[in-house]
Structures are given as structure tokens and as C-alpha cells.
Amino acid sequence: MITRMTTTRNGPPPPDHPHAAAWWLIQRHEVLVALCQRLPGAWDHDAGPDEFPFDTGVIAAAINSFDALATSGKRADLGDRLDRANIQVREFGYLSRTEQTRLRLLASLTDRVGLSMRDLRGLDMNGSRLLRDWSAAWIAYG
């Protein structure tokens, strides 16, 4: 299991590890915690103090599943990761476009997910702040 690096919520994003950058982003935006906790398998409530409590692979698989549904109208086979996480879109429920964008930004720090400028339209002030922090994390690690 990947252990989290020490990060501080108010300091700069960590430049040494993508999961540490994602953890920094989660610490700064509590809405990400709430979204991760809604997604089956994405949040580990039993994680120890030195472990990442989230799995961005599960988040990425969910985003890819939503994308597949949007393009094909049915759940696409996304492989073992999706099956292991036991994610089914109908279990997760409704996810707004803004919520998808927020999860997409988080997952993109550690996994391959689609992200376009169109996803960023309509973000409110909190979403804009998240985008600013995501950009800082991306630049720090990239």
C-alpha cells in the first residue's frame, strides 16, 4: 500500500509523489472527501494514519464508466479494476457534471482520465479554487 507523505494543507503542493499531490488537494477541498466517500470502494474508513484513505484508481474507473455510459448508453466493460472495486453506476447514483469534473481533476493527478476544457465550464467559485489548486499540484509534480 502506498503511504502518504507528510503534507500540509496550507503549504505548497508536494513535488515528490502524485498521490501526495492528490492528498494535498483533498485536504484543501472537503467536497472531494464527500464525493470520494459516496463512491463505493474509493474511501477506506479503516486506513491507518500513515496510509492514503482513498484509491484514485477506483475514482478513475468510475469516471471512465460514466464516460462509457455517456457515449454508448450502456455500461462498458472496463476490466479488472472496475470489477474489483465492485463499482456499478446505478449503485453510485446521480453525479452532476460539476461533481464529475471535481473527481476527474483529483483522479487525473494519479491516473489516466479524460479531461477537456468543456469539463471546466460552469465551475462556481469553489470549483475555480479547486482548479487553481489542481493546477498548482500539476505544475509542482509535473
In a few lines, what is going on in this structure?
With 142 residues, this protein is mainly α. The chain has helices at residues 18-28, 30-38, 56-72, 80-85, 89-92, 97-108, 125-141.
How are the elements arranged and paired?
Blueprint: H1 18-28, H2 30-38, H3 56-72, H4 80-85, H5 89-92, H6 97-108, H7 125-141
Describe this structure in words.
- By secondary structure, this protein is an all-alpha fold.
- It has helices spanning about 20-30, 30-40, 55-70, 80-85, 90, 95-110, 125-140.
- The model is unreliable at about 1-5 and about 80-90 (pLDDT under 50).
Total count of domains: 1
Radius of gyration: 15 Å
Order of helices and strands: HHHHHHH
Q: What's the number of helices?
A: 7
Structural class: mainly alpha
Please give the largest β-sheet.
none
Average pLDDT metric: 77
Q: Which stretches are poorly predicted, pLDDT < 50 over at least 5 residues?
A: 1-5, 78-89
Number of strands: 0
**Beta-strand share of residues:** under 5%
The helical percent reads 40-55%
- The rounded distance between the terminal residues' Cα atoms is 23 Å
Shape descriptor reads: globular
List keywords for this structure.
mainly alpha, 142 residues, disordered N terminus, 7 helices
